[in-house]
Amino acid sequence: MTTDQIDPRIYDLYDEYCHSPMTRREFLDKAAAIAVVGGSGLAMAQALLPSYAKAQMISFTDKRIKANYVDYDSPGGTSGKMRGYLVQPIGDGPFPSVIIIHENRGLNPHIEDVARRAATEGFLALAPDGLAPIGGYPGNDDDGKIMQKSLDRAKLFTDLLNSAKWLKTHSLSNGKLGATGFCYGGGVVNALAVAMGSDLNAGAPFYGAAAKADDVSKIQAPLLIHYAEDDKRINAMRADYEAALKANNATFEMHTYPGTRHGFHNNSTPRYDMEQAKIAWDRTIAFFKKHLS
């Protein structure tokens, strides 16, 4: 099923499902109750559920990279320990480093694939799993969403901040750190820019919650901020964020991608917009190469 065949109300319901306690069963039942023209609300809803195996772009056996899971300390976090997916380009290094922050459901296969994509571009990439202290990504997004919701948000952020610091000082890192993330992870990138100051060298959040206006003065990293055109919840924060960044003489770019919805970079569901996702990703890679090399 293609993007234009799905009723906009089903997209809106899917967005609510992704960002609320709504269960998959409730999502499907509510979609089935929506009268749509030329199809079934249930079928449209089922088409929006992720298909990670089909979406993989870079194999974990790709000869250009080396990937493994790593454990490291995380003082002040959920348990004091963290785990992440570390992908390095083949070679001796050092490499510019990029942390990749997942959405609100833990380190799923899509985010691991994004880390591999970054490594093929020459970056030492770490995708931390915020769920690691309570058992790790459970193998499906529904349980992952519930697990992440159960965490103390401040401790979860501490775990992700510690992950960024760990990566920046890794023996294979050149000492320069970039951050990108999606949805919840995009908001974390903005928060890392506040918390890390000059220790973050570049940030590229995708459709993430803006930093608080009072905290923007702490941001020193250049930012490349990506927005979907149809994303009411996130876009409602944009004007105030832009004004605060300008008022504090921050270095930033904001881009809105025409015809897109929240999640347009995620190629595991029909929200994916191949053309606009490529533009956004190419911009992100060029941005990181400029600021981290």
Q: Any key phrases for this structure?
A:
single chain; 293 residues; alpha/beta; Rossmann fold; 2 domains; 8 strands; globular
Question: Shape from CA axes?
Answer: globular
CATH topology of the largest domain: Rossmann fold
The stretches of 5 or more residues where confidence is low (pLDDT under 50) are none
Number of DSSP helices? 11
Order of helices and strands: HHHHEEEHEHHEHEEHHEH
As a percent range, the share of strand residues is 15-25%
Domain count: the total is 2
Going by CATH, the homologous superfamily of the largest domain would be: Alpha/Beta hydrolase fold, catalytic domain
Structural class: alpha/beta
Number of strands: 8
Fraction of residues in H or I helices? 25-40%
Major beta-sheet overview: 8 strands, mixed
Strand order across the largest sheet: 1-2-4-3-5-6-7-8
Rounded to the nearest angstrom, the distance between the terminal CA atoms is: 41 Å
| Rg (C-alpha, Å) | 18 Å
What value does the average pLDDT take? 93
Task: State the name of the first-level CATH class of the largest domain.
Answer: Alpha Beta
CATH architecture of the largest domain: 3-Layer(aba) Sandwich
Oligomer: single chain
